[in-house]
Amino acid sequence: SATSPPAGGLGPTRPGDGGTADAQLVAEGTLELRESDYVDLATGTMSSSRDAGSDFFLIGGDGFFLDAAVGETLALAHGAGDRADCAETLPRRTDASVSLRGVRPGAVVCLLTSDLEIAVLSLEKLPSVGSPVLRFGYRLWH
């Protein structure tokens, strides 16, 4: 068969399709997350307080971090930076946060939600002292 499950069984993939075979894209867009903001990728909304739908938030201070909501996992992608790469990377990680120190624009962060949805975050603008804003494009699959 042309379809094979990736490590961790997060859904079938086909070579060259970016891991989207049989996966339903539920949300995509570009967001600007400010220091201490929480984001819900399914709705594309941000708030200054954590709610039931929050996926992660941006922590500032001595360095910037993305911090996952309870039950969710974040990891830097080290391959193609697509859904298939994230589906392979995430089952091997248990990280609740990702440091943005030393990360460059164009880097990709993978998110596994508590609902077993996979998100690919393409970092466009990184936060810095004096400009604590992270801009990223994202795609979320169920």
Distance between the termini: 22 Å
Which percent band covers the strand fraction?
Answer: 35-45%
Low-confidence stretches: 1-18
The tally of helices reads 1
What is the arithmetic mean of pLDDT?
84
Q: Which tags fit this structure?
A:
five-stranded antiparallel β-sheet, 10 strands, 1 helix, 5% helix, mainly beta, disordered N terminus, 142 residues
Characterization of this structure:
It is built from 1 helix and 10 strands; from the N terminus they run ββββββαββββ. Helix content is 5%, strand content 37%. The chain is globular. The longest helix is centred in the middle third of the chain and has 7 residues, at 83-89. The protein is mostly beta strands and 142 residues long. Mean pLDDT is 84; it is low at 1-18. The two termini are 22 Å apart. It has one helix at residues 83-89, and strands at 25-34, 38-40, 45-47, 56-59, 65-68, 73-76, 97-99, 108-112, 118-125, 133-141. A 5-stranded antiparallel β-sheet has the order 1-10-9-8-6, covered by helices on one side. It has a 5-stranded antiparallel β-sheet with strand order 3-2-4-5-7, with no helix packed on it.
